[in-house]
Amino acid sequence: MNNLHNFNIRIYLLGFMGSGKSSIGKRLAHKLNFSYIDLDQYIENKYFKSISQIFETEGEANFRNYEKACLHEVSLIENAIISCGGGTPCFFNNIDLMNETGNTIYLKLSPLMIVNRLKNSKKLNTRPLIKNKSKDELVEYVTNTLIYREKFYLKAKNIVEAKHKTITEIIALIYSKNNSI
Ligand code: S3P
């Protein structure tokens, strides 16, 4: 890959839990020789607590404050792929900050595909919002939450239909979208 000079210096990956932000982000960062930042990991390192512990001991509202503070910090890092949490764009003015400081890519998947991926994910029970949900509860949660969240996700500068695409195909699409703005 060349033409790196055309790339935005910061790319935020947005999307629901299980939409592939981390795996795509890591591969994309490697390909572009950018740093890879997982916002959840950044929060865990800064506050010395896992995301689950923060939710359990301090509640979601505090988690959202930490998330916002960390997003501001990473928005200053150059040449970085930033994989956000599923809720990051949907609180405060986070989506506006991301759009102002980089390219934003929404990895779009249907609720059914998200549910199937989450069900098969090793991380299922490390995600406090969906921990211990039955399949039916998960379908209901993902469907309803996505209806609300998509309003924010769709503010991303670029939307990538991730359905039936391999990681390699998605990365190629992001590359072309990033290069063309
Ligand atoms: C959340 C998604 C999680 C994590 C937290 C809340 C959400 O990140 O930030 O559990 O609100 O959707 P992933 O999307 O990486 O699982």
Helical content stands at 40-55%
Radius of gyration: 16 Å
In DSSP terms (H or I, runs of 4 or more residues), the helix count works out at: 7
Contiguous low-pLDDT stretches (5 residues minimum) are 1-5
- Describe the global form: globular
Report the structural category. Answer: alpha/beta
The run of helices and strands is: EHEHHEHEHHEH
Strand tally: 5
Hetero groups: shikimate-3-phosphate
Percentage of β-strand residues: 5-15%
User: The biggest beta sheet, please?
Assistant: 5 strands, parallel
Straight-line distance between termini: 17 Å
What does this entry look like structurally?
It is a single chain. It is built from 7 helices and 5 strands. The model is unreliable at 1-5 (pLDDT under 50). It is α/β, with parallel strands linked by helices and 181 residues long. Helix 1 packs across helix 7. A 5-stranded parallel β-sheet has the order 2-3-1-4-5, with helices on both faces. Bound molecules: shikimate-3-phosphate. Shikimate-3-phosphate (S3P) binds next to loops.
